[in-house]
Design brief:
By secondary structure, this protein is of the alpha+beta class. The chain contains 3 helices and 8 strands. A hairpin with a 3-residue loop joins strand 1 (about 25-35) and strand 2. The chain is globular, with a radius of gyration of 16 Å. This is Pyridoxamine 5'-phosphate oxidase family protein.
């Protein structure tokens, strides 16, 4: 069990630690919604290119269908004590149209290249517009560390 006696971190430290986690972690929860079918949430592998989160899933998945109808998504890293939530709009890239650098980085991180699979995969790109990061109650105030796509100081 983790110690819950946390000390409030400055925003710059939360930003740095969030960027470190985005670069290092493997999984992200992806929440989408469809007007007729409601919410849908799945864990996906992801890579971070310094500006956007890149994920990959089957071209006929509920996640891709939902994003094509409603591109607004919420992403969350899996640690509930060290919460990181990202909001933005997802763009779909069929595996034959994904930018090579993004697909190559994804393949290098996971040792698996979805572009070689059959049936086809779709890459999802999310440029965060809002990022919230906090550890426990002491950091609830000031948990927004990015607003309208700009990191807060």
């Amino acid at each position: 069990m983790q110690n819950t006696n946390t000390v409030r971190r400055p925003a710059a430290e939360r930003r740095r630690e969030t960027l470190d986690r985005l670069a290092a972690e493997r999984d992200v929860w992806v929440a989408t919604a469809h007007p007729q079918h409601g919410p849908h949430q799945v864990p996906l592998w992801f890579s971070w290119d310094g500006r956007a989160v890149w994920m990959c899933t089957g071209e006929n998945s509920a996640t891709v269908r939902n994003v094509r109808t409603e591109p607004r998504v919420r992403l969350s890293l899996p640690d509930t004590f060290d919460a990181v939530l990202l909001q933005g709009e997802a763009e779909c890239f069929p595996d034959h149209e994904v930018p090579g650098d993004a697909a190559d980085a994804f393949a290098a991180k996971f040792g698996w290249d979805p572009r070689t699979e059959d049936p086809s995969f779709t890459y999802l790109r999310v440029v965060p517009q809002t990022v919230r990061a906090w550890r426990g109650e002491p950091e609830l105030r000031g948990r927004v560390i990015m607003r309208e796509g700009a990191w807060l100081e």
